[in-house]
Structure formats: structure tokens, C-alpha cells
Amino acid sequence: MVPPGDIGPIPIWVGVYVLFALALAAGGYAIYQRVFRLVLQGRSEYRFDRPIERLTGAMAIVLGQKKVLQRVPFGDWAGLGHAAIFWGFLTFMLSYAIFIFAAAAWKPFPEWLLTDTGAMVYSSYLDILAALLLVVLMWAAVRRWVVRPRRLSFDLTRNPDAIIIVGMIAGLMASTLLTHSFYVAEGGTGPEADVIIGGALGRLFIDWGISQSAASVLHGLFWWTHFAIILFFTVYIPFSKHMHMVAAPINAFFRTLDSRGALPAMDLENAERFGASRVQDFTWKQLLDGYACAVCGRCSDVCPANVTGKLLSPMHIVENLKDHMIEIGHQGARDPEHAEPSPILNNAIPETAIWDCLNCGACMEECPVTVEHVPTIMDMRRYMVLEESNAPETAMNALISMEQRGHPWRGTQFSRTDWAEGLDVPTLAENPEAEILFWVGCTPALEQRSQAVARSMVKVLKSAKVDFAILGDEETCTGDPARRMGNEYLFQIMAAQNIETMNSYNVKKVVTICPHCFNTIKNEYPQLGGDFEVLHYSQFVDGLIREGRIKPVKMMDVTVAYHDSCFLGRHNGVYDEPRNVARAIPGLKLVEMEGRCRQRGFCCGAGGGHMWIEESQGERVNHARTDHFLETNAQTVGVSCPFCLQMMTEGIQSKGMADQKESKDVLELLSESLET
């Protein structure tokens, strides 16, 4: 894009640099006032550890568009379109430095820097790219406003802001082509006159009889139009959703490097307030998330609560928090007693939506800009429980049971060891030198259907001659349900008790049945000083099979559709091990719930304390998941979690298929296949 002539007596470079400086100052001031000044109200949180890992990961996410493209293998090609626009944006940004800012000061600069051939190649590349991006933008507009896939049907994704942005980007591409074409039509020479599409258009205009003077005027007009759009973007970005172009790279760098299954711990002794109900109660990273959000709808599109008709939309949580913060403005110095002009809960964000969350992490898995929705939701849940004693009745009943009886299963008549009757299972008190602590968990010990899984585990361990023991009556709930239901105080009490018990026996290695126990002891107990080697049974048993210590021999003529537990799979990356165990069983045929498995698995509906919390509205999540299973035509849905086992069993019963279909833990299937 060859710059036009000077502006009367004013050199063109003066106009370019003065206007850009003014736009940059206005945009920078807006970013400070509307973004960073507000974000820095948040609580401090240290996210500067492992800088090399943060930087390399952020580069893959931002420059490589890693998370944007993760849906492409599943047939969602929009990621490719976005990546093409982004990479085109980077190319044009570089071209502005060369062909606008440097060339405005010294016209021969592009040829001096790139050589004549290089300048011709780069200009031709920009020329072709502009035409291609115009096609991509037209497709994007049709897709967003006409085709409208589910994730683009939300009110936020229908905001007119999207039209403005697409229109302005299209204006940049069109003005690029027209600037090239009228430069050729006015008789321009040099490398930039050899562009392909702009050159063809320029020759067409000459054939139509355009005069050289008219072409010269139009060349200047479209060059300045292009530059004006750049200035507009510089000022407009802080006021639009495209603020994510600035905030997302920062957000990617400061993404959590911990397991997604670990909720941040609360310092109960020194906390100003428990949980979050005001802007200043959230961390600066949680506030930054709202600006990083690209309003793409991916998070809400995969949220099991939203899919089944609940009020929760993860996208609206972070966006509404941001909008609330902007609306009320900076709230001054930190003050624990300060009341905001308008409340967040039941104003910007409905309380019902906070309780709808299953903690499944699907939103965070899908988010292309590393927004962390779940910790933000959980901090609001913590506030409601700890500051207001405000929770659904079913949640309160479970929490009271945990306080009084050490487990959430109110009404059970079983003891911690009834399930092991007749199995000769030693306790750590009887065998304190045991190699493995088999952590049974509340549900396999106290819920009748799940007790079969605990018994299967004992059979497997004994078949492999593993030296193990249980805690028996000394075992209490890990505290996971309390933490997920917002009672951090109860969680820390229960966790500290368990850590003290295990340390008294010098426990080194723990194997669990339940992914929730696995996640809590592995990822959250270290927050309180409990450091143990923790394995889910699927990891441990897969190792036993590979070592030849156990060998399934009985043929199992059954087709199994495997269901991924959120806390085993998405939160901890354990996908292959339970499948390996299933495949080791002779005759068993393993199938997948295509499009809803592994990283894209769909929650059973029990996460986030919802094993005990009634759903607010819409279809039951476990019924929706049961439909995914039934679509496979498999006889059995295989699980590796006692919560999933119960939810899928109830789902099959609710569909009237209990006489044809069944839900089984993979451990049960393995146990049946072992020699008796």
C-alpha cells in the first residue's frame, strides 16, 4: 500500500504519526480506566511461577491458536476460519509497520528492507490474503446471523458489536484491494504495482476510462480510509468484546498450571470475607477473565446444565461479572465492610445459576482463551454457604450429615466395614506396614449398589497378591462434597482429620475407587500438607495387568460403551487406563459415545455436589447422558466412578430399559472375568 502524497503543506508522516499517537493515547487511557484499573481491584493471587512453561504454553494458545482449533477434528470448522483471520491480522500488523508507518516517513523503505522482489512478494501476498479474508468474513457473517449454530444463538453472541467488528475488518480488506487497484490505475510503478488482484482491478478501471487524476484521488481516499479504520480499532477495542485481543494473551500466560480438579484453597484464618459477592472479593485473574472472554459461546454450548435447560451459562457468568464491574466503576480502597451500589448475586448473576454448576470443567476445557469459570462460580457458592448459610435444602441435609456422621449419605444403616464382611480385609490398625492403603470412600462403603465395586476391588487386589489394608472406621469422608457445595470450613476440618490419620500410619501410597476421592487426596490435600502418592484403581489395575500379576480369563460376551468420569478424565487426564482394563477382558467389545467422550465427555450429573442436590429445572443431566449411551446400542455402560454408576443406573431405569441395559463399573466386569 504505497502512501499518497502530502496533506498540502503538511508531510504525510506528520499526519500519520500525530493521528496514531492521539488514537493510541485515547485507546490506552480507555484500557487503563475500563480494564486494568478495575481488574487490579481484585484480590492478589500469585501467578508468576514457572515463567518458561507459562510463556511457551501461551505462545501455543495465542500464536498457534491451539485451543481455537481443538474442535476442528470434531467437524467444527469455525476454528479454522478464526485462525485464518487471526494469522491474517498478524500479517497485516507487520505490513502496517513497513508499508504505512515506515513508508509514510520514507517511501523507499519497503524496497530497502525487503528488496524489490521481497516487497512485490509481500504486497502480492497481502493482496491475495485480503480477497481470501473477505470470503471468510462473508462466510462468518452468514454462519453467525443466518445458520446460527447453538453456540451462536445466545443473546451475547448476537450483539451488534459483532457486526461492527466484522464490518470494520471487511473494510480493511476491501480498502487494501482498492488502494492497490487505484494506485495501479493512476500509473503507479514499482513492486507494489505488480499485485495480482489489485492490479487486475486497476487495469479494469483503466479500461472503463477512469482518469489518472481521479484514480490518484481515490488511491488517497482508500489509503486514508484504511488508516482511519486502524485508528478506529485502536480506540474502539476497549469498548468492545474484541478487548480479548489484548486480554487473552495475558490471560493465557497467567492460566492455572495446577490440576483443573483442584479448587483454590481459602485461608480461613486471614480471609477478609469468605467467598465472593463483590468485585473486590474476586481475584484479579477472575476479573481479567471477563475481558479475555471472546463471547464465542463454546463454554455454554458444552455445559451440561445449560444443554439440559438450566439457567447456568458459563459465558454469562464471566461477562455479567465484567459488565457489573464496569457499570459500578472503581470501588475505592479495599474495605471488607464496603457495600456495592448494586449486588452481584440475584442481580448480575442469578443464585440459581451458581447452584446449577456441576464442576465438570467442560467450560474450561472448551474455552479458547483459558477463562477459568469454575473457581469463580465456586467462590460465589462459598459466599452463599459460609456468609449467608444459603444453600438448597438437599445440600444442607448432606452437609449436616457430614458434620454429624462423617459422610453425606443421610439415612444409610451401613457401617464403614459392612461391605467387607466375609472377605477378610485387614485394616491399617491390623497391618500398619501395608504397601497400599485402599481408600474405600463413602459411597462404595455405605451405598448398597456401590458396595459391589468395593468387593470387586478386594478380589482384584487379592488375585494380584497386593499387600493392602483399609482404614475401616477410621476413614471419614475426604470432604469433597463439602468443598464442592461451598463449605470450605467443613472440607478443611475433614481433610485435616484424614491427613492426620494417614500420617499416623506413615501412609505412602493410596489407591481409590472414587475419582472424587482420588482428585481430592491427590490434588487438594497437598494444599493442607497431605502429600501422598495417589492412584485411581484404573491406573493401578492397568499396571497389574501389564505386569502379568492378574489375567482376566473368563469370556465376557458384552458390548460396553465407556463413560468418562469428569473428575477422572477431564480434571486429571486419565482416559486410557480404564479403557485398557476393559480391553483386557476377553470377549468384551468397547465402543465410544462418539463426540461425547474423552475430553468432550458429558457429565453424569452428580458433580459439584449434585449427587445430593436436586436439579433446578429442565431435563435431568443423567437422563441426557443416558440417551447418549442408548444411541450406541451397547448392552452395558461402563463407568469408573460410584457416582456415575448410580446416575447411569437411574437413567436406564427412567427410560424403561432396565431389563435390556445395565450400568456396571469396569472393576466389576474385570472381577467377573478373573479365575475364581
List the helices and strands and how they pair.
Blueprint: H1 12-39, H2 51-62, H3 78-105, H4 109-147, H5 161-185, H6 197-207, H7 212-236, H8 244-253, H9 284-292, H10 298-302, H11 304-307, H12 314-328, H13 351-356, H14 362-366, H15 373-386, H16 393-405, E1 436-439, H17 442-446, H18 448-463, E2 468-469, H19 480-484, H20 488-504, E3 509-512, H21 515-524, E4 533-536, H22 537-547, E5 559-562, H23 576-583, E6 589-592, H24 621-630, E7 636-639, H25 642-654, E8 662-665, H26 666-673
Helix pairs in contact: 1-3, 1-7, 1-9, 2-8, 3-4, 4-5, 5-6, 5-7, 8-9, 9-12, 12-15, 18-26, 22-23, 24-25
Name the shape in a single word. elongated
Runs in which pLDDT lies below 50 for 5 or more consecutive residues are none
Report helical residue fraction.
40-55%
Quaternary class: single chain
Question: Which class of secondary structure composition applies to the elements?
Answer: mainly alpha
Number of strands: 8
The mean pLDDT is: 93
Rg, rounded, reads 30 Å
What percent of residues are in strands? under 5%
Distance between the termini: 80 Å
Strand order in space, largest sheet: 2-1-3-4
Number of helices: 26
The largest β sheet comes out as:
4 strands, parallel
